[in-house]
Amino acid sequence: MATKCSIPVIDLQDFPNQSSKLMAACEEWGCFRLINHHEVLPSTLMSEMKSVVRSLFDLPVEIKRQNLDVIVGSGYMAPTTKNPLHEGLGLYDMASHQDVNTFCCQLDASSHQRHSLFLYVYILGSLVLDIDISQDSRFFNIRVFGIVYLREIIIKYARAVHELFMRIGEKLAEALGVKGENIGFENWRCQIRMNKYHFTPQSVGLSGVPIHTDSGFLTILQDDEDVGGLEVMDKFGHFFPVDPWPGTLIINVGDMATVWSNGRFCNVKHRVQCKEATIRLSIASSLLGPRETIGPLPELVDVDHSRVYVPTTYEDYRKLRLSTNFHAGEALELLQAPSCEN
User: Fold this and answer.
1) Dmax over Cα atoms in the chain, in whole Å?
2) Rounded to an integer, what distance in angstroms lies between the CA atom of residue 50 and that of residue 41?
3) Are 26 and 268 a contacting pair, CB within 8 Å?
4) Which residues, 6 or more positions from 80, have their beta carbon under 8 angstroms from its beta carbon?
5) Is the alpha carbon torsion for 195, 201, 204, 207 positive or negative?
6) CA distances from 223 to 59, 181, 200, 210, 243 (A)
C-alpha cells in the first residue's frame, strides 16, 4: 500500500545551491521532481508533444505495428497478457536525425488515407482538432501537412530533452566532483517511450506496469498532468504516490547510473497503479548510456572505496536483464566486482 509523501524537488535554475540536495535525492531516493526547466523544455512544447503522442496512439493498430524494434522492446508494444492495460510506442535514438526520420516514416499513414485518422495540425496558428480524413479525400493535403507538423514537434522535443539530459548530467558530475565535459554525455543514446494506459472500472486497484527499475542512466518522465498512478519505492521498501504536477518533470535514476556512480546513486524501483477508469498518457525519455563500456568513474574508486561493479555496455546489460527476467535492479548483482561478492 502506498503512503503519502513527497519526493525531492530540484530547481534547475538554482545551481550550485541545489548541488547537495541533488546528491541527496540521487543517493536516498533515486528520483526527484524537476522545476524551472522551461528555458530548455517549455510548457508549450510539452503540451504539443502530448498532443502528438495522443494522435499517434489514435492511429490504426496495423500502422502502429510498423514502429519496429531497433533493440528488443524499443518499438511498438501492444497490450499483452502480462501487461493488458499498457500500450507503447518507441523512438530508439532521439539524438540521431536518421532514427527520428525512421520513426516518423514508420507511422506515416499516407497509403492508408481511408482509415479514420485524427491529426493535430496548425493552420495559421490555430489548432484544428480531430480531422477525420476517412470520408473525404480533400483532406489529403491537410493530412500530409499534419504529418510534417508531427515530425517537427518530435524533432523539437527530442532536441530539448537531449539538451536537458546534458544539463542534468553536468550537474550530477559536478556534484560528484567530476568534470562533466570529460564524460561525453552528448554522444550517449537517448530513447523516447510513449505510454498509453487503458484503465477501466474493472482495472482500478490493479497494476498498469509492474515494479521495475529503468535499465538506462537517467529517465526524464513527462507524466500525465491529470491522472495519477506513478508510485516510487523508498530504501525501506515503502511505496509513495507521485501525484500529478503540471509543468514539471520526474527524473528517475537508472541502473547504469548506479554502476557509473560506483553504487552511490540509487536506482529507484517504481510502478504504475490504476487509480481511476480513464486513459493515462506519459512520455518517458531515457539517456541510455555510452556506445562503449560504462563502469564506475575512476575518480570514485580508491583505497577507501573499492570498485563495486565491473564495466559493461548498455546493450549487454539489457540483454542480461531480459535473459534473467530481472527487471527491478537484481541484475546489477551479477555485475558486482569480485571483491564485492562476499
Assistant:
1) 73
2) 13
3) no
4) none
5) negative
6) 21, 30, 19, 17, 9
CB within 8 Å of 98: residues ≥ 6 apart:
none
- Name the phi and psi angles at 104, rounded to 5: -65, -40
Strand pairing report for 279-289 and 218-222: antiparallel
Q: Are 275 and 227 in contact (CB under 8 A)?
A: yes
* Bond preceding residue 16 cis, omega within 30 of 0: yes
- Give the separation between CA 121 and CA 1, rounded to whole angstroms: 42
Residue 145 scores a pLDDT above 90: no
Please say if the pLDDT value at position 124 is more than 80.
no
**Number of residues that make up the chain:** 342
**What is the rounded distance in angstroms from the CA atom of residue 228 to the CA atom of residue 225?**
8
Nearest alpha carbon to residue 85 among 273, 282, 213? 273
* Mean pLDDT rounded to a whole number for the chain: 86
pLDDT at 288 over 60: yes
46-56 average pLDDT score:
93
Contact in structure between 156 and 46 (CB atoms under 8 Å): no
* Long-range contacts (CB closer than 8 Å, 24 or more residues apart) made by 180-188: 184/290, 185/287, 186/95, 187/290, 187/291, 188/95, 188/217, 188/287, 188/288, 188/289, 188/290, 188/291
Contacts of 278 (CB under 8 A, 6+ apart): 199, 227
Q: What's the pTM?
A: 0.87
Residue 29 banded pLDDT, cuts 50, 70, 90: very high
188-219 pLDDT tens trace = 999 999 999 999 999 999 888 899 999 999 99
Is residue 51 within a helix (H) or strand (E), and if so which, with residue range?
Answer: helix 43-57
Task: Could you list the beta-strand ranges (E) of the chain.
Answer: 9-11, 31-35, 86-91, 118-123, 126-132, 189-198, 207-212, 218-222, 230-233, 239-241, 249-253, 270-273, 279-289
How would DSSP label each residue in 260-321? HTTT-S----EEEE--SSSEEEEEEEEEEE-SS-B---GGG-BTTB---B--B-HHHHHHHH
Give the number of other CB atoms < 10 A from CB of residue 98: 8
CB 262 within 8 A of CB 300: yes
